[in-house]
Amino acid sequence: MSQLFTTILYQPLLNLLVFFYTVVPGHDIGVAIVLLTMVIKLLLYPLSRQSIRGQKSLQQLQPKMNELKERYKNDREAQAKAMMALYKAEKVNPLSSCLPLLIQLPILLAVFQVFQSGLHNGSLDLLYPFVADPGSLNPVSFGLVNLAQPNLVLALLAGAAQYWQAQMLSTARPPKKMPGAKDEDMMTMMNRQMLYVMPVMTVFIGMTLPGGLALYWFIITLLTALQQQVMFRKDGPPAPKTTPAAPATNAS
Fold first, then answer.
1. What is the pTM of this model?
2. Which of 32, 33, 59, 182 is the most exposed place for a label (fewest CB within 10 A)?
3. Which ranges form a coiled coil (predicted)?
């Protein structure tokens, strides 16, 4: 499994980073990381687009979801069946927004190991024959920032980009609690977590990781936020159908 991870993710990313490093004027590692991030983002673009549409579609379904929760507030099983019928009728997958994140986790781990080996330890022993070996990678970008060391500014930028991305996906006004509801609406809780908790976690985690990884996370989050903005302004996510979902039937 380790060898598969190295062959499929780690080695290609290491070679791509070194390639950009050798062809960029001045051999600036920061510019090489930005270019590497843009390539990764381009490869993940279809999944990211699907995730953004899925999250926005779930928000658009929120009024109907609230109606079903009120209708079946005393019958959890019927409520769950009605929700599934609603998702099916509207062709919305509630898990679609999680897929790109799950796919990014092994990529993030591979990028971390690339920076650990290439920037921190200087190990470039897995280069392809057609990739020029620079001998070592200078971790200092623009003559100022050592990307092999943690960097507070880059961690804060990554957190700010995370906040901006989440803010665009959050509802303008959280739905009111329904009479008799014991728990706060799940979508509202998720929105609050994405809006506040994730940016703070990004900053704290980014402060402990190499600056190169914080730069990667900042750029890829910024590109995702810009993608969201373009999608929302131009074509927008698909609007839900007007046909109501068939109510779940109770066993007699």
1. 0.76
2. 182
3. none
